[in-house]
Amino acid sequence: MPEMTAAQRRWESWYQAFISVVEAFPEPVEVPCPEGDGGFIRLTYYGLPGSSKGSVTAWCDRCYHGIWLGRVSIPTGAQVYPFEGGPEGRPEIKLIPEA
User: What angle is formed at CA 56 by the lines to CA 51 and CA 57, rounded to 5 degrees?
Assistant: First the structure.
């Protein structure tokens, strides 16, 4: 198996941070930002009302970098926003390209 590139390792570290937050839900957990900036990972889910599937942005509350996953299960009890909008006041997220 070929060695991962730096871009692939970066994306994978973000994906693993996302998984750590999801696995802890509904318990709050402070997963450190993979960028090492002292921030923590936050999730913003998007979907249709009542749907158990949607998309999610996993992002850092300090550097505002993150990843977007286009098809995920939305945990029961998670806050879900419509596809056309997110939480008011959330900063613009700088998405990391998929490697």
Answer: 160
- Per-residue pLDDT tens over the stretch 25-56: 999 999 999 999 999 999 999 999 888 999 99
Q: Which residue has the tokens 């450190």?
A: 32
46 with 82: CB under 8 angstroms?
A: yes
List, for residues 56-90, the tens digit of each pLDDT value.
999 999 999 999 999 999 999 999 999 887 788 88
pTM: 0.91
Give the number of residues written for the chain: 99
For CA atoms 64, 66, 72, 75, the dihedral sign is negative
Q: Which pairing describes strands 65-73 and 41-47: parallel, antiparallel, or unpaired?
A: unpaired
